[in-house]
Amino acid sequence: MKNYPSHLRALALLVVSSFVISCTDAPPPAPPAPKIEYHTISLKPLNPAVEFVGRTVASEDVSIKARVSGQLLARHFNDGAQVEQNQLLFEIDPASYTAELNRQKAALSQAKSAYEVASLQYSRGKQLNEKKLLSDMDMDELTSRMLQAKASVEGAESAVEVAELNLEYTKVYAPVAGRMSKSEVFIGDLITPERQMASLVQVDPMWIDFQVSERSVLNARQKLRENGADSLDQLDISLRLPNNTVFDQKGRINASENRIDQATGTISIRAIFPNPDQILIPGMYVTLIIEGVKPVQAVLIEQRAISQDQQGHFVMVVKDDNTVEKRIIKVGNQQGIYWHVEEGLSAGERVVINGLQRIRPGITVDPVEVSAVPFESN
User: What pTM did the predictor assign?
Assistant: First the structure.
């Protein structure tokens, strides 16, 4: 085996090391573009809508009070129960009112007897007066007595009617059908006309009061007229409940103030909704959705495609070269799983709906189109 000079061995080692280093410095292969799923935007028919926050109000809210005083004998409902119109609610001790009625009936009998006597004397006196056997002065006296007796009968009859009413008032009935509150009185309590015994609310139908700014009123009227409605009361109204579900009944606007409140710059409007299952309870905050009558073509995308940061709502759009662009959008009302996009997107653009966590603006992606969930127009 030959022995090479040391300087040749060093040179060979340097060449080999340089080759190894050059191979190590070669750039790694680029990772594959991340796969994402997208929807191609197409316009869909949508009824334009505006939303307002309102509060439910009972269509009837009655304070149950007695018309007479007395000791409470009985209560004929359970707290919170549904009652019918004219259903018996409370009974007050009728003993004193029964006695008063009997007294007034006796007084009426006396008055009638006195009237009969006065009438008989008047008739006899008239015959005598016509024969000049009774002076005109005495005749005037008989006439006066007869008229006073007649007035006494009428007064006694009125007193009997009042006594009968007071006796009837010892029973307290429901003036309307509705749901009772807790009773505020107990058996044995002394009841007076000033004391509230309970309250009764009628919740079918239910009213919903809401305040609308003058600008919103004008915008809503103009927008809805453009889409086939002359006034708000021609439109069906949907209701979104506090748990974000949609109420299963439609309502309508049935009343509004005739002027803007100068202090608040708003107008008070009232809607009415059927509430047969009593889902709506007085005092709830709800969202009224007033829909147009003429559908328009609109951009709608699934909620899962929308993200939000300090700039607002945005989506990721796949451009023609398969790079990703962050697009700020303006969203309108929610339509099921879809959101109405009012600004920022156009038909034909590709919006990422799956794989958002794997991408960022500017990155190239491997896009795969998937079918959108069918949209049902409201």
Answer: 0.64
